[in-house]
Write a structure and sequence with these properties.
Blueprint: H1 7-20, H2 32-71, H3 76-85, H4 92-101, H5 103-115
Length: 122
């Protein structure tokens, strides 16, 4: 009785893993054990950093909005509070784009926010 071996299956899996690690440096792309660890870490960092990227973009948009508001004499927190009281539903990405690409419209939004602030915070 011949012994059953899983040679083709194992080789196919290793080939698939090596294809995934294409572009990795040194032995991390061609030695199987190192490549397996490298691909696990790479996927972990990719998963984590997709969330970090969203966080960083939100921070960037807030910085841009704050700078544009301060040029018009209003703080970021007052601007957002005024927009919420005026029931303006715009996200920070679109507000940031407005501040850069259409300053006149952003100025109108700042005036709207200023008009809707409570009396003591102006």
């Amino acid at each position: 009785m011949t012994r059953a071996r899983s040679g083709k299956t194992v080789l196919r899996g290793r080939k698939r893993l090596r294809k995934l690690t294409k572009g990795f440096r040194l032995s991390r792309h061609n030695l199987y054990r190192q490549a397996a660890v490298a691909i696990i870490r790479a996927r972990l960092f990719a998963y984590r950093d997709r969330r970090v990227r969203r966080r960083e973009f939100r921070r960037l948009w807030i910085v841009r909005i704050n700078a544009a508001c301060r040029m018009r004499g209003l703080r970021y927190s007052q601007f957002i509070a005024g927009l919420q009281r005026a029931n303006v539903i715009l996200d920070r990405k679109s507000l940031s784009n407005l501040a850069i690409s259409d300053p006149e419209a952003f100025t109108k939004l700042v005036e709207l926010a200023r008009a809707n602030l409570p009396a003591g915070s102006k």
